[in-house]
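Batch job 17 of 40 flagged for manual review because the log was empty.
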Amino acid sequence: MAICLKEEVANDNCVYRNEIHRSVRERTQVLQDVAADPTLARTKSVHCAQCNHGEAVFFQATARGEEGMTQFFVCCNPNCGYRWRD
């Protein structure tokens, strides 16, 4: 199988950086919205400790104050949104 890549010339070489600042209060809503994100991986092999729902989204990120990556889960039950890490 051959893969052909087409080279494109950019019209602009400017790199944009968008900094988003949120308060601690907003953080809870952002994490609950994660459960509805269709781009995140989902699993049915875990159960929420709060509501016993059988589906969660998961992602990896660095945990505050820790080295390395941590796997985070968010319950997909819209009435729950419980978060935990592995």
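Reviewer: the log was empty due to a logging misconfiguration, but the result itself is present. Residues 24-34 form the longest helix (11 residues). Unflagging and moving on to job 18.
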